[in-house]
Amino acid sequence: MAKIIKRLRDFIDIHPDSKIVVCGCGISLLDFKEHHQKFITIGVNDVPQLFDPTYLLITDSPHRFNLKRQGFINSSGANHLFTCAKGWRHPNMVHFDLGEKGKASIRHPDRIDHFVNSPYVALGLAYRLGARKIGIVGVDFTDGHFYNPRDGSHPVIKMNYLKRVNSSYRLMLKTLKDGGADLYNLSQVSKLDLPRITIDEFEKL
Fold first, then answer.
1. Range of 48's domain?
2. Is pLDDT above 70 for 2?
3. N or C: which end of the chain has fewer CB within 10 A?
4. CA geometry: angle 66, 69, 71, nearest 5 deg
5. In sequence order, which ranges of 159-197 are alpha helices (DSSP H)?
6. 199's torsion region: left (phi>0), alpha (psi -120 to 50) or beta?
7. Which pLDDT band holds residue 152 (cuts at 50, 70, 90)?
8. Which H or E element spans position 183?
């Protein structure tokens, strides 16, 4: 059985002034697949079904995933799995504490704030790793996911929660900007209200 071998503070600024892409599981991740090896990436949840990100982040416990999905996560080739949940069995695990909901602190060495979905937490991780140019892709809130394009409306849309989600991401955008980092939406179909550029434009920054 794997064990938690490190904490978040061990990874602060290991990629100073870097360019990192946070990857969600929306449809637009399919467009990013051919580009992922050009970047340091932080994938969430099922991203290893499409490619192995540099790092993987999970905020939910294993029981929230079926056995097949758990297998993709535990056997991922990601360098490390960052998690605040118990029960995962990836060989290289890093623990962090989940912070406050709806907040966007980017300085605490062991705790990351959250809001509704794990890519939000991954943005806080990207900054702590040292990123100063951060892209986000696959956080679309459109119908379907890359692993199941027919699984219907996103829960955020069903709950009429998109306005609050966008408000929280704009808070993160401002906090990152104040901390010296720029955030860009690399998806052309995303409903996330962030500055939007193409993957090629992000690569050239």
1. 4-204
2. no
3. N
4. 110
5. 162-178
6. alpha
7. confident
8. strand 182-185
Residue 81: pLDDT band (50, 70, 90) is: very high
Residue written as token pair 């890093």: 94
Position 109, amino acid: P
Alpha-carbon distances, residue 82 vs 73, 78, 145 (angstroms): 11, 10, 22
Closest by CA to 109, choosing from 6, 3, 7, is 7
Phi, psi of 113 (to 5 degrees): -70, 165
Are the CB atoms for 53 and 78 separated by under 8 Å?
yes
> Which segment of 42-56, 74-88, 113-127, 160-174 scores lowest on mean pLDDT?
160-174
Q: What is the pLDDT of residue 4?
A: 57
Q: What are phi and psi of 194, to 5 degrees?
A: -135, 160
